[in-house]
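Provenance

Sequences were taken from public entries as deposited. Structures were produced by running a predictor on each sequence independently, with no templates supplied. The record for Spermidine/putrescine import ATP-binding protein PotA from Pseudomonas vancouverensis is shown for reference.
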Amino acid sequence: MNALHSLQTLAVSIRSVRKVYGDPHTGPVALKSIDLDIRDNEFFTLLGPSGCGKTTLLRMIAGFEFPTEGEILLYGENIADRPPFERPVNTVFQHYALFPHMTIAENLAFGLESHPMGKVLGKPQMAERVREMLALVQMERFANRKPAQLSGGQQQRVALARALAPHPKVLLLDEPLSALDLKLRQAMREELKTIQARTGITFIFVTHDQEEALTMSDRIAVLSEGEVQQVGRPEDIYERPRNRFVADFIGETNFIEGTVTRVENGLAWFAGPAGHPLPAQPCIDVKSGARVALSVRPERLHLVPATTESALPCRIEAQIYLGTDLQYQVSLSDGSRLTVRTPNCVDQSKRFAVGSQAGLLFDQGSASVLHD
Ligand code: ATP
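Predicted structure for Spermidine/putrescine import ATP-binding protein PotA:
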């Protein structure tokens, strides 16, 4: 791929962006130095805890805030001097902000009329676009209702249709599902993903909910304290967290200290708790003898009878019933504790009783080396 082509396929490029609110020397630093490339037609998620800078980044792409340093390119073009309404970008907010005195169809038409990309449409085209967008979010039959006559989930669909109507190149979504209840949120996740795939519009989605991020995104950027911690596909982020923050923020994990015993053909071998050998990891940037921090997900550990050869001996300290899974707390001979998660099974004799001895096996490739 030549350089020009790769530029064209990037929807948004964030280059060394720093954001300080107020005085650049003394004001609060919201973003330290962000570099991110978001591809055309991608469902990209900015994920992180409250205050990490997600909304600030989104608002800068939209043009409501400006970087203190660095630049933002939209399809290769620096958009610093373009006001929000001249950017091929639209935003869906957490609060739907629909006009209460207008019907759903009127809300959409008004959104189109007031957008530069909608203004160029004639009346019949506009009516057609409104119909098309309401069909996309399955709200056609509610076209003549007022917002107060809709549920929260239905209002959010209308807000989505309104934002999509001008056919923006990039849609920014700022925690759009957080006001909905759990069941509705789950249903809307699938729907958002389908709509993104169907329209081919680049979605940049902001959330602090890791499950939302894992289930919908093509790629995720994990942010903490104004810095990008890791960018990758959901599997990369979950299976190979780069550091302690990412491992802890996404799902549950066990932190284990290990010593690298050898590195061979791109595989690192470790001695884990109580010197127990752990399965090798694909890892080249560690040296023999080094002490490293490892992350092992609870479902990558397996409890077996205490007599099992090559299993790490442990004691069952607690068992928690989670419905689909059982979660165990186990202790090792060196006093350390680990969390183990197993699928719940009907056969109760396969459960491990609290206070009993058991053995622990690690899945092949289950541990990730954490780099800071
Ligand atoms: P949340 O999930 O709670 O919305 P966030 O990750 O979106 O958080 P931002 O709203 O981007 O975080 O805020 C990042 C940092 O910048 C925070 O420390 C916040 O207090 C600060 N901040 C945000 N807006 C302003 C502002 N207008 N003036 C001063 N500081 C601000």
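The longest strand covers residues 10-20.
The mean pLDDT is 90.
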